Amino acid sequence: MKPLRKTINRALNCLAGVSFLAMVSLTCWQVFTRYLLKQPSSWSEELVSYLFAWMSLLGASLVTGERGHMNIPLLAEQAGPGTQKALSVFAGVIACLFSAVILIFGGVQITSLAMGQMTSSLGIPIGIFYIILPLSGTLNVIYTILNITDILHGSLPRTEAEEADKEAV
Question: Staple partner for 19: which of 50, 55, 107, 143, CB 3.0–4.6 Å?
Answer without folding.
Answer: 55
